[in-house]
Prior knowledge:
By secondary structure, the protein is α/β, with parallel strands linked by helices. It has a domain at 305-557: Rossmann fold. The strands form 4 sheets. A 6-stranded mixed beta sheet has the order 7-8-9-3-10-11, with helices on both faces. Strand 15 and strand 16 form a beta hairpin. Mean pLDDT is 87; it is low at 1-5 and 569-574.
Amino acid sequence: MKPVHDILVSIRDLRVSFRLDRTTAFEAVKGIGFDIPVDSTVALVGESGSGKSVTALAILGLLPKENSTLGPDSRILYRDRNLLQLAHGEMRKLRGCDISMIFQEPMSSLNPLFTVGFQLIEVLAEHVGLGSRQARTRAIELLREVGIPEPETKIDAYPFQLSGGQQQRVMIAMAIACEPKLLIADEPTTALDVTIQKQILDLIAEVQKRRRMSVLFITHDLAVVGEIADHVVVMRDGEIREQGPVQRIFEAPQDSYTQALLLCRPQLARRPRRLPVIDDFLNRAPAAAPDAPERSRGLRGDEAIVIEVRHLGKSFYSREGLFGKREFKAVSDVSFKLAKGKTLGLVGESGSGKTTVGLTVMRLHEASSGQVLFEGKDLLAMPPGVAMQYKRRIQIVFQNPYSSLNPRFTIGQILMEPMQIHRLGSDEQERRNMADALLEKVGLPGTSFFKYPHEFSGGQRQRIAIARCLTMKPDVLICDESVSALDVSVQAQVLNLLQDLQDEYGMSYIFISHDLAVVKYMADQVMVMNEGEIVEIANSDEIYLRPQHPYTKKLLSSIPRGWRGPRESPIAPG
């Protein structure tokens, strides 16, 4: 860490409690303390519920007044001023000008009713006092600085007209508009493709050095931390488990929880039969050992084929003028085979056509051309009534477990509804018994049957979504970004579950993801898509060791690989 006199923000004995009802309170942050040096990047790491974002909101004074309470001895010192004692007007001047924040989800942070230029100009007018013409000129400069193409045009675009990466760049432009001393980045790359993620990480690092800012980078992914941080603070359950320079944390982690975060995530160098989870490290289980047995992957070429896709195409149309329409080819001439009991990884950036392929194979999109042969019969040519009997044999696990489960149904109703539709089980009692068995299979207690989705965590909801698919006893399971929004330890649990189910039932998976490390762990064969077309397909190990196509090489070079040795030290304060 930097000398004491170079500390920008000092957090001491920070305690934050939330009132749940008149008599019950929950302590989210339990007396933590750490420093943010001048001109450095501090990473605040931990799983959901660890208190990371609550800490950031406390720094900015954005905790809800109606149900949050700060400890009497809590202090957040910014240049010797306790931010927790500032009047509302003083804090408002400081917020955005001296301290600013990039939020996790840009689409919910940007106002959809206003252009990005209007929102950026509003910041400049409020905090810098620029006139409309000066503010517009400065806004264009900021958009150019964060890498937005054609900023003179994009300044008049609405958020929905920009890609996810461009929206996040606009958020960064808004955050640095007033040249803050501290930039807080709350999970700014979690939902982004690997190439866009690398661009955003590089941009934040570049802006930090050029403007000599301090950065508090909040994430659950230690591989990302190794790319950007100077100092790491590891949190769990509202407490700091470990903190220190990034090199020491990666090379000699002291706390078992830090060791777990480093090794729960799939690694490119090895593929253990089971991914270790947090409890393995806390209980010193054999599954966490670095020499645990590995799993082999790949196709020999003589496997039985469960699905063959031939020349699949899918176009979408938008209106152009009064009577015309414009065609957009989302998928073009895609052909592949899925082997029985094996996993095909489907990778590519957003817009590459991955999800469209999965939905079209399931007939959730109507194909424009091609065939999907299942047991020799073309699913796409079948009348709806005939196709119904095949639908239960191909199931899908969607990306977002929060929106894919009906909030008005109990878990029992969610599991039994598909059984009733497809007339599985002789009566309600048999269906109930089947639902109980599935809950046990995915590691949930029997009492879950009577609960509602909102009573479960994200990882538990994804287990419920998997259990719902298993009610149909499918031959093929399509996993569409099904672990991308989960913490690394919960992700490991779900990946282990999917592997156990494949081992037991011999199911075939189409595993769609932008996380190439996860695909490397799960897939026997990897298919790389770009702009609706297949650019490369090969066995998993082969494609990672010897990629052939420039696009594949670009994707692989963008994977965050954690700590790789000392980086150029930050520019010293002038």
